[in-house]
Amino acid sequence: MRRSTKAIAPLAAVLLVGGCGRGAGVRQPAVVAAPSPAVIAAPVMISAAAYVAAASSIDLFEMKSAELALQRAREPANRAFAERVLSAHQGTSAQLSYAGRRLNLLPAARLNPEHQAMLDQLASASDFDGIYRAQQRVVVEQGVRLHGGYARSGGSPTLRPVAENAENVMRANLQALRGSR
Question: Whole-angstrom Cα distance, residue 10 to residue 6?
């Protein structure tokens, strides 16, 4: 009996993702069809500590960049967006801090190197408004992925609702960012 390539391709993709493809007696085609959307969308599991560190860096970047935007932005839409972001991330930061303390995980008081480099670039930008918008798009999309993944599959029941709320905040920010330009 001959199996169709359509039936084998998803199985081969799962075996490859799971690290079971080699030497398992399954002959894999030279080119494997794209895995099903469920395999592609499978979130990468991160620890509660890693989530708190990444989320706190995003919150801190959002607040610091918003403060800069309130001082330096020339476009009214950027100033309005910065006010929204500052208020929203003061809230998500407080929630993260409260939940983190319950788990003995204090949010970082400083940015990760990637976010620090972005903030330094923004602080010295001659085209502040353009750089601010571009960076916001990157960080907000990063936040949607981080919070959404943790909300759906994070290991801490204490942090999952915090992540779900933060994902909603980031999605609203992304929508506002797209709509105000």
Answer: 7
